[in-house]
């Protein structure tokens, strides 16, 4: 089938699976207000479509998502709503990653039910390097990540590979060669599942993540807004856009 839609998110449906592709490679699929809104609309339509058994979330270019678009950042509440929408969608959402993911891009992956990446993928929580914190993306991530690994990678902003991402719980699987071959049995399994049973089973495995949203979303949204308005964030984002080190680098 021919992909549908124009703009930052395109759709393709085949064999019960709808693929939503982040398609703003010139901006490294950064989470702009426009991309967040477009993805929310596409997910809502998938959730209501009886022909959709599952959703695959993937990307064009060599970057899955670079995180928040510093030139057109989304409202923190809108990003929280998008992450919760993925977790709460009655259809399983599968992340297919063949490139780099940074900051908020890891939040998208963490919200998905199943996530696979190829050997070229890399990951980093880069928020601390621009003067903010991985606040709202913690809602889906911290219930799923190894606690020691989360502390290390949140605090240092280090880059890590797909094998490590799978070890610490960010990914379901790290494909050694072909991510599509690794995902083939997963998608076949989802196609063979009864839709109602699939939805109820997803509720079982996402219950604790949704409890975290209910308990902590308001506080983490406020924290994100406060940090992005801080003097450190202004310096960090300016340094990033000017391709220089921020003043605190030793």
UniProtKB/TrEMBL annotation:
Q: Name the SUPFAM superfamilies for this protein.
A: ClpP/crotonase
- Molecular function terms in GO for this entry? catalytic activity
* Superkingdom as given in the UniProt entry: Bacteria
What InterPro entries would the database entry show? Answer: ClpP/crotonase-like_dom_sf, Enoyl-CoA_hydra/iso, Enoyl-CoA_hydra_C, Enoyl-CoA_Hydratase/Isomerase
What protein family is recorded? Belongs to the enoyl-CoA hydratase/isomerase family.
Q: Kindly provide the name given to this protein in its UniProt entry.
A: Enoyl-CoA hydratase family protein
